[in-house]
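Holo model, BIS(adenosine)-5'-pentaphosphate. Inputs:
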Amino acid sequence: MTDATTLTAAPVLILLGPPGAGKGTQARKLEQAHGLVQLSTGDLLRAAVAEGTEAGKRAKAVMEAGELVSDEIVIAILRDRLASPDCRKGVILDGFPRTTVQAEALDRLLADSGQRINAAISLDVEDAAMVERISGRFTCATCGEGYHDSFKPTARAGTCDACGGTEMKRRADDKAETVAQRLEAYHAQTAPLIAYYDKAGTLSRVDAMGAIDKIASNLSDVVSRAIA
Ligand code: AP5
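Output:
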């Protein structure tokens, strides 16, 4: 059973943005720079699919179609992960919440443990760039470091810069037609959260159209202020 007092510790940061905005890329940099833990519901769901859990079986076809997995499944997965001891140093939520129901559930979860959201940061990008970003994406199968054929290649072809691993993988939902569906789901169900967090007074916006390191620097400044 989950003890509400152990759910998580401040700071709590949210990265909002459409598929390919760079949430995962930037969350990994923030982990290193600020000693926080990245929680990606996409990664948690892909792990559930790979393990063949009941939740994974229910999520698989939905993810491959580029639609959103049910709030019930995602909230349960996120809640369990937040209860892990490593989350006590603070978390970066990457890809959660994605609906108003999830945002309200997160508010309740944090309130139960005396926590709050330090900042919800919207990575602002143009849809047109997203298909190109996503279609060139690959990750290291060993450590999960993310790369791009053109924008962030490995220094040595086929070898991960971070861990030296040589097995790279591409995602099943990174096909152009699925990306279009994922963008549609984002605009219909997730973009309204920008207004939700603006109203709550926790919203920050970062231009995510430039070079990765420049965005990381701007984002890090926002995070430093939010967790000070
Ligand atoms: P998820 O895994 O969360 O995918 P996503 O939101 O579609 O986001 P991506 O991982 O595609 O993009 P990203 O913003 O992390 O970009 P990245 O840094 O990789 O979700 C997958 C699926 O799971 C969903 O469709 C849904 O079915 C389900 N799901 C997950 N969470 C859910 C929830 N809460 N509720 C319901 N369902 C849920 O960058 C992309 C590429 O671009 C990389 O190759 C990178 O190197 C490159 N890049 C990054 N920044 C730049 C830059 N500035 N310039 C050039 N290239 C760049």
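The two ends are 32 Å apart (CA to CA). The pocket of BIS(adenosine)-5'-pentaphosphate is lined by residues 17, 19-25, 40-42, 45, 62-63, 66-69, 74, 95-96, 98, 102, 133-134, 136-137, 146-148, 151-152, 173, 182, 212, 215 (CB under 6 Å).
Archived with the compound record.
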